[in-house]
Amino acid sequence: MLSEQSAATVRATLPAVGGALGEISERFYEGLFAAHPELLRDLFNRGNQASGTQRQALAGAIAGFAAHLLEHPDRRPDEMLGRIAHKHASLGIAPEQYAVVHEHLFAAIAEVLGEAVTPEVAAAWDEVYWLMANALVALEKRLYEEAGAAGWHPWEVVERVAETPDVTTFLLRPAEGTPAPDHRPGQYVSVRVELPDGARQIRQYSLVAAPGSALRRIGVKRLHGGPSPEGEVSHHLHTRVEVGDTLELSAPYGDLALDDSTGAPLLLASAGIGVTPMISMLGHLAATGHRAPVTVVHADRSPAGHALRAEHEEYTAKLPDAAAHFWYERPEPGHPADRTGLVDLSGVAVASGTRAYLCGPLPFMRAVRAQLIGKGVAPADIHYEVFGPDLWFAQDA
Question: Most buried of 20, 104, 212, 277 (most Cβ within 10 A)?
Fold first, then answer.
C-alpha cells in the first residue's frame, strides 16, 4: 500500500517517530483545541483528554497502522480501522475534519522533531496519514449509509432503574414518533447531553435490549469522579435525568456485533459494566432459539455489584446448551472457591471452533484472550470491545 520509497523512509524513521508520538499527540491536541475550542467542548471526550488516554490511543493507532503497513504491505488492518470507524460514525465525524487533523498533527510533528523532518520524511508520513484517513472516510461513509438515520435524534426516558448502587439503566423511546433503525446484538449508541457549563458532551453506551424492540435500553455506570471531566456525563445522567426527559442518541454502531449465523459455539466474557453488550447478545440468542453451546463468563467485585445479574442468569438458563461462570473478588458465602478472584478458565470447557466476544477492562480482556488462545481458540475468532479509547495498540507500541 505504501510506495516503495515511502516504505523505506517510514521503516527508517519509525523508531524515532514512534518514540516521540506521545509528545507529538500532546502538542497536536493543544494546537487543535487552541484553534478549535468547540471541538473540546462539543466533540472530544473531556474526561479522556484530562486523563491522557485519548493521546495514548492516538499515538498507538498511528504507530500500529504504520507498523502494519510495513509488515503486511498488501493487507489493511481492517479490524483496527473498523473499530475506529464505528466510533467516529457514532460521533458524527465528517470527511473534512481529517484535513483539520492533518494540519495540526503535522505541525506538531514538525515542532517536536524539528530538522529531522526533512521533505522526504514529511512526504512519507503524509502518505501514511492519508492512507489511514481515506480508509476511515470510506468505512464511515458506508456506515452512515447503512445506518439510514445518521445524526442526532431525540429519545424520551420512559423508565430508569437502579440496578446496583453504581449502575442505572434507562429505557428510551423515540420522541419523533418514527421507527428507529434496529441494531445488532452487542452494538452501542452515542448519547449527547448538555452539561451545566453549556458543553455538549458525548459518550457511548451499549444497548442492553436484544434487537427487535422499538425501545432502547442503556446501562450507565456512575464514575465516582463526581462532576469532574472523568465522570461528568455519567454523573449528569445519574443525578439530573429523570423519566420524561429527552436525550439525544445516535444510530447504533460498533463492530462487537454477534455473529451466530454459522452455528459455532460461543463464549461471552465480560467484567464489570462490560456485561451490557453480553446481555443483548444473550437476549438475542434466547429469543432466536440458539442451540449451539454457549459459555458465559463474567467477573465482578461482588455479587451486589454485578449489574443485570438476574438477566445474565435468566437468559443463560433459557438456552439448551449453556453454562454461566461468575468470578467475584468478594464473593458471598457458599460461592465456589475456584470462582473467587480473577477469571481462571483452566477448569472451564471451551468447545472446538468457539467464537469469543470480550468486553471489560483491557487487562481482563488481555488475560482472557491469552487463556483462550492457550485452549486452542483461533485469534481471529476472538473479538473485543473497549469502553473508552482503545489502548490495545498503545500498550503494544
Answer: 277
Q: How confident is the model at residue 396 (pLDDT cuts 50, 70, 90)?
A: very low
> Which residues, 6+ apart, have CB-to-CB distance to 114 below 8 Å?
none
pLDDT at 167 over 60: yes
Count CB atoms within 10 A of the CB of residue 148.
9
CA-to-CA distance for 52 and 286, rounded, in angstroms?
Answer: 40
Here the cell at position 306 is 454485578
CA pair distance 174, 156, nearest whole angstrom? 6
Q: Which helix (H) or strand (E) holds 203?
A: strand 200-206
205 labelled catalytic: no
CA dist 78 and 168 (Å) reads 34
The gap between the terminal CA atoms of the chain, to the nearest Å, is 21
> What is the C-alpha separation between 98 and 94, in angstroms, rounded?
8
Q: Which position among 140, 163, 248, 385 bears the catalytic label?
A: 140
**Quick check: 297 and 348 in contact, CB under 8 A?**
yes
Residue 109 vs residues 19, 25, 36, 121, 396: alpha-carbon distances, Å: 12, 9, 19, 11, 21
C-alpha 258: how far from its chain's center?
15
- 120 contacts 32 by C-beta, under 8 angstroms: no
Q: Residue 357 pairs with which residues in a beta bridge?
A: 268, 383
pTM reported for the whole predicted model: 0.93
Q: How far apart are CA 162 and CA 249, in angstroms?
A: 21
Neighbouring C-beta atoms of residue 79, cutoff 10 Å: 12
Burial class (CB in 10 A: 0-12, 13-18, 19+), 39: middle
The Cα–Cα gap between 155 and 245 comes to 8
Instruction: Choose the most confident range, by mean pLDDT, from 57-71, 73-87, 157-171, 173-187.
Output: 157-171
- Assess whether 140 carries a catalytic annotation: yes
Cell, residue 285: 440468542
What does the pLDDT look like over 66-122, one tens digit per residue?
999 999 998 888 888 999 999 999 999 999 999 999 999 999 999 999 999 999 999
| Element of type H or E holding 221 | strand 216-221
